């Protein structure tokens, strides 16, 4: 089995998390996916490429496994992030359109979930937690910026079109207000894009679990509409360099600003 995560260690106070860009599915699990599941449609396509090189000496932690194996951004206890709303679980049974992804009779059972927690979810988060501690040790503060994307239209999950920039801080609980405001300032000034703070996506389990401003660890989630950087939001989900380069300028601005304000967040 390959390592379920990749790490690049840097010296910046910023850590980029990538829980959903992985596309690796072990053969014994891939064989249980149906034709729809094997498309891996709910991948955060090319997001690690989108952020690559934007900030010198940034730390990155990326899950290499696909979210259909187990979702690295879900509560390991299986508690819903959005009670009462459509969503997908710790080990999804459907895709984001509510369509089954497993062959009949092949959906994961409790033993499967326990094994995947042990082999994938827990190692990824152990690696991420260790990097947060290392960076906080260097600076007295660490800012986890969790990187995500999703199709701009998914009626099963939300009405209408998703804004381009979706900032999640669990209603301001997961980071100092200066981080939230700096990010919001950049996206609101980004010409041709729309944005929302704590809209449909308020931050996943990663952001809510690690974001403890009183301890010097701050977390913020950025969910990007895939229309901002893909040629199409359908297979083959190809990267659009022209769109991406335009978007990358704003993402770089966010990360640079967060790095600049980090020293003032020390407690």
TrEMBL record:
<dbReference type="Pfam" id="PF05013">
    <property type="entry name" value="FGase"/>
</dbReference>
<dbReference type="GO" id="GO:0050415">
    <property type="term" value="F:formimidoylglutamase activity"/>
</dbReference>
<keyword id="KW-0378">Hydrolase</keyword>
<dbReference type="InterPro" id="IPR007709">
    <property type="entry name" value="N-FG_amidohydro"/>
</dbReference>
<protein>
    <submittedName>
        <fullName>Formiminoglutamase</fullName>
        <ecNumber>3.5.3.8</ecNumber>
    </submittedName>
</protein>
<dbReference type="InterPro" id="IPR010247">
    <property type="entry name" value="HutG_amidohyd"/>
</dbReference>
């Amino acid at each position: 089995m390959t390592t379920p995560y990749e790490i690049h260690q840097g010296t910046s106070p910023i850590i980029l998390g990538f829980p959903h860009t992985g596309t690796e599915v072990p053969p014994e699990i891939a064989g249980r996916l149906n034709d729809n599941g094997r498309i891996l449609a709910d991948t955060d396509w090319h997001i690690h490429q989108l952020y690559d090189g934007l900030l010198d000496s940034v730390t990155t932690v990326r899950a290499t496994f696909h979210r259909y194996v187990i979702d690295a951004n879900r509560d390991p206890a299986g508690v819903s992030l959005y009670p009462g709303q459509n969503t997908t679980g710790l080990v999804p049974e459907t895709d984001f359109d509510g369509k089954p992804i497993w062959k009949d009779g092949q959906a994961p059972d409790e033993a499967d979930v326990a094994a995947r927690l042990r082999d994938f979810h827990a190692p990824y988060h152990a690696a991420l937690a260790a990097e947060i501690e290392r960076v906080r040790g260097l600076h007295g503060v660490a800012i986890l910026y969790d990187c995500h994307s999703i199709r701009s239209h998914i009626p099963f999950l939300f009405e209408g079109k998703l804004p381009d920039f979706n900032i999640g801080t669990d209603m301001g609980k997961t980071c100092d207000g200066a981080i939230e405001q700096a990010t919001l300032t950049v996206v609101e000034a980004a010409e041709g894009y729309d944005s929302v703070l704590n809209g449909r996506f308020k931050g996943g389990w990663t952001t809510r679990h690690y974001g403890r401003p009183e301890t010097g660890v701050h977390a913020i989630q950025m969910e990007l509409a895939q229309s901002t950087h893909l040629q199409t939001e359908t297979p083959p989900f190809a990267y659009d360099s022209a769109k991406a380069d335009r978007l990358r300028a704003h993402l770089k601005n966010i990360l640079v600003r967060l790095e600049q304000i980090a020293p003032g967040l020390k407690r």
